[in-house]
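During the second year of the project, the team shifted from modelling isolated chains to modelling whole assemblies. The rationale, set out in the original proposal, was that interfaces cannot be judged from single-chain predictions alone. As a representative example for this report, we include one of the complexes processed in the last quarter. Its constituent sequences, exactly as entered into the pipeline, are reproduced here:
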Amino acid sequence: MNHLTADFRSDTVTRPTEGMLRAMASAPVGDDVLGDDPTVQRLEAVLAERFGMEAGLFCPSGTMTNQIAVKVHTRPGDELICSKLAHVYNYEGGGLAFNSGVQVRVGGDDYGRLTADDADALLQPMDNVHAAPTRLIVAENTSNKGGGTTLGLASLRELGAFARTHRLGYHLDGARLFNALVADRESPEDYGPLFDSISICLSKGLGAPVGSVLLGSAAFIAEARRIRKRLGGGMRQAGYLAAAGLYALDHHVDRLAEDHARAASLAAFIQQLDFVAEIKPAATNMVLFRLVEDADAAALLAHLKASGIRLIAMDRHWLRAVLHYDVGEPELNRLRSALARWTA
Ligand SMILES: *Cc1c(COP(=O)(O)O)cnc(C)c1O
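Output from the structure prediction step:
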C-alpha cells in the first residue's frame, strides 16, 4: 500500500502525525513492568481521572483489555451476556473460551444495542444447578458491527441498574467510546461510576499507533496487571507508545466530529446507489451497507482497489467504510466517484 491509497477499511490504519511522533520521541520513559515508566503512569492516571475511575492499565490492544477484564470478572464455567454483534464474541478469536472458559449468551438488535429487557431474557436462574451462573454483562459503545451505533447513557444506566440488581459485573468495551462521547455530547465522568471496568482504544479514531487502556477500581486493576503479565502484555519502555495516546487525547478528540460529518454525508450518497439494498444509520464514523442480491461484493472491492480505494467486507453481504483523519474530502470524493462509476 502507498500513500496514494484512500484507505477506508478501518480507523486503525491511521499513521502518527508529525506532532505525535515528536511527542513520542521526547517522552520520558522507564521500565513499565518494574513500575517506573512515568509516561505510561501519566496516561493511565489521566484517563482514570477523566472517567472518574481509580486506576488504569496500558495494554497492547483492545482485545487484551477486554480479555483481561472478562478474566478478572469471571471464573471458568460462568456465563456472560452481550450483544450478538459484540466484538468480544465475534472478533477476539474465541478468546472468551480460550482465556476465561466462559460461555456467552447473546441478544439485542441488529445495531448492537442490548437493553435491560434483553438482558433479563438472557439471565440464568441462579438457584438452578443446571444453568451456568451469569456473572457479567458486556456493553459496547459504539457498536462496531452495529455500524458505529451509540447506545446512549439512559439505556446504559438501565442496563447498569439491572446488573447491580442481579450482582453482575458490568464491563464496557469502549474501543470507540470517544466517538460516542463526541456524537452524543456526553461527559466521560458519567461513565466511570456506571461501570466496573471500561476498555478504551487509542489506536482507532484517536490515531495512536498502538495501545488501549483498561480502567477500573484499584483492586481490579491490580488483578488485571497480574493477568497482563501472564498474557505477555507487560511492555518495558512503553512510554514511547503511551506518549502517542496522551497526544491523541489532547489533539484528536474534538476532530472526531469531522469524521462523523463525513460518514453521514457518505451514507446519504451510498443510500441512493441502485446496487445498495440496505444501509445502517451512520451515527458516528462508519458506514455499513449491504449490496442487492445479485451484486458481487468482491467485484466491487476489486473495482475500488483498482482506483486505489480500500473498503472492508464485514461478511459476504455487508461492506464497511470507516472515516478517520487520514481520509479527508479528496479521498471521500474519490470514493464517491468510484462508487458512481460501478454497475453491478
Ligand atoms: C477494535 C476493537 C477492539 C479491540 O481491537 P484491537 O485491534 O485488539 O485493539 C475491541 N472492541 C471493539 C468494538 C473494536 O472495534
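The chain has 13 helices and 13 strands. The first strand starts at residue 6 and ends at 7.
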